[in-house]
Amino acid sequence: MRRLSILPPLFTALLFIAAPMKGQVTVESGIDNMQILLGELATLKVDVSCDAKARVELPAYQPGQALAEGLLVEVDAMLPADTTLLNEGRRMTVSQQYKITSFDVRPMGDTLYSLPPLTVKVDGRDYHTQPLALKVYSVPIDTVHLDQFFGPKDVMRAPFAWEDWRWVVWGSLLFILLCICMAVLAISLRTGRPIISIIRRKVKLPAHKVALSEIEKIKAERTWAQEDSKEYYTQLTDTLRTYIQERYGFNAMEMTSGEIIERLTQENDEQALAELRELFQTADLVKFAKWQTLINENDANLMTALQYINQTKQEEDPNQPQEEIIVTPEARRQRATIWGMRLTIALAALVACCLLGWIVFRTIDLLL
Question: Under DSSP, is residue 252 helix (H, G, I), strand (E, B) or coil?
Fold first, then answer.
């Protein structure tokens, strides 16, 4: 019974102890390096632990402002505060860092500075950090040889490293390639010349072989010559006109029969032209006067054409090329339209400009 009577006072005491812990405020400070050279930086850190809803006001300093009045330790920079929530958001820790330094020491010696406590306000109430110490060492000076000093050195350039410049080099090569492609496309678009021409090789036969081959085809189809004499003589005379044009070099396809015979008198003798003149006259009568011919007459005119070709054929030159090269200028239009080429040039120009800007920026960054 006595143990049970003690429990209520114990619970009451715990409640009174826990009540102030909820609003307890802890202020701590520290310095990362308590010994620095003249002008060197040290970091002064202030940590405030309090209720998450409390309003915290930390000391604020401007660059170059003394840490305390009359103290030769100044604040070089004040970093942004960092807040961390604890206990499921019920409490928080606010951390503030100050970069401090000193440019003044005692003549020919070192100085130990006592850093006074900093004042932190939490919900309008002042809390103080513990005092700290900072020792500043002077730079050693040769007081014996004052006339011996070394002037400032030039900026030392870093050695060439391919790893730093390789992307600039590859980018420059790509930029040059883009410029060449744009120039080729622009010139081709302006002049109308094909970018890529398709070359075909065709076997070049002598004029008399071509003509004899055509006459053989006509001879193989002579069964219809009696029924359609006009078509028969049209094919026969066209074959002769083509042969004469290739053999003598004048446009026989656009000339009349009389004009062809008159022109051939300058090349052939009268005996060779006698039967050819008769063949052309018969062909004109059949084509324009609906003249009817017999089978044996058609065969005779066919033999006349064969005989004329064999008499006037030109011997083959062994040095003459046996192939004829044919270039198709329409290859460009088959591969890309004009608008497609213009769009390609525009896109290549845009990429080239962006690439050039990156190359210039990267080069300046490496040089500086």
Answer: helix
pLDDT, average across residues 233-240:
85
- 196 contacts 335 by C-beta, under 8 angstroms: yes
Q: Where are the beta strands (DSSP E) in the chain?
A: 26-31, 35-37, 42-51, 56-57, 74-78, 82-86, 91-101, 111-115, 119-122, 125-128, 132-137, 198-203, 323-328
Q: Using alpha carbons, select from 198, 205, 209, 203 the residue that is nearest to residue 323.
A: 203
Quote the DSSP letter at residue 152.
Answer: P
Number of continuous H segments (helices) and E segments (strands) in the chain: 9, 13
Q: Beta-strand (E) ranges in 175-273?
A: 198-203
User: Token pair for residue 249?
Assistant: 């070099």
Q: Where are the domains of the chain?
A: 24-137, 162-200+335-367, 205-312
Q: Ramachandran region of residue 174, left (φ > 0), alpha (ψ -120 to 50) or beta? A: alpha
What's the whole-model pTM score?
Answer: 0.38
Kindly report the CA angle at 225 between 224 and 228, in degrees rounded to 5? 85
Using DSSP's 3-state secondary structure scheme, residue 112 falls into strand
For the segment 286-303, what is each residue's pLDDT rounded down to a tens digit?
Answer: 888 777 777 778 778 888
Taking the C-alpha atoms of residue 31 and residue 26, their distance in angstroms, rounded to an integer, is 17
**Are 303 and 278 in contact, with CB atoms under 8 Å apart?**
no
b/e per residue 130-152 (b: at least 16 CB within 10 A)? eebebebeeeeeeeeeeeeeeee
State the maximum Cα–Cα separation within the chain, in Å, rounded to a whole number. 162
Q: What are 263's two structure tokens?
A: 């022109």
The answer regarding whether domain 24-137 maps to CATH 2.60.40.10 reads: yes
- Overall average pLDDT of the 66-84 stretch: 90
> Are the C-beta atoms of 355 and 171 separated by less than 8 Å?
yes
